[in-house]
């Protein structure tokens, strides 16, 4: 049976899709089928009602994060986010930042008021290094699309955090920190999960 909602701590994580616009070298799905004992491989992607039906029994904060890029299912995501905001829950999206280019419109503007926080995988401090590890369908342009989305979200008043994995080295981490500061975002260094 497909896992659409899984719990880590006191937060419900939403697994909308296994598709992604990137194919990152370090992606969890290269070596694992899920996280926290949950198998997140999907045979069928959920509808908003599938997820809302589960959340109705456990109304808490949510994070859109599964084995794929949640913003590829933007209409489903927005419907679920609106439901969570209706009961006062906190909504976060973990994303690669390609929502606007993927959908061909300003997705940041659509998320304003229904998403509290967005965590974007910056991964590297420049476009060449970024594309070398994430293998974006947009090539090196994927980096600028991601940064533009981050800036747009900041302008919409959404809390934005850009993150890197700790394996890139101290010099690159500091360069990435400056990139985050330049777009007005917070910065976080994630621990690599092997």
Quaternary form: single chain
Order of helices and strands: EEEEHEHEHHEHHEHE
Number of helices: 7
Strand order of the largest sheet: 1-2-5-6-7-8-9
How much strand? 15-25%
Overall residue-averaged pLDDT value: 94
Q: What is the first-to-last residue Cα distance? A: 26 Å
Would you report the number of β strands?
A: 9
Structural class, from helix and strand content? alpha/beta
Helix content: 25-40%
Shape: globular
Low-pLDDT segments, ≥5 res? none
Could you give a short account of the major beta sheet? 7 strands, mixed
- The whole-angstrom Rg is 16 Å
Task: Compile the SSE list and pairings.
Blueprint: E1 5-8, E2 11-14, E3 34-35, E4 38-39, H1 48-55, E5 62-64, H2 74-86, E6 91-95, H3 99-103, H4 107-111, E7 117-121, H5 127-134, H6 141-155, E8 159-165, H7 170-183, E9 186-190
Parallel strand pairs: 2-5, 5-6, 6-7, 7-8, 8-9
Antiparallel strand pairs: 1-2, 3-4
Helix pairs in contact: 1-2
Short description:
By secondary structure, the chain is α/β, with parallel strands linked by helices. Helix content is 35%, strand content 19%.
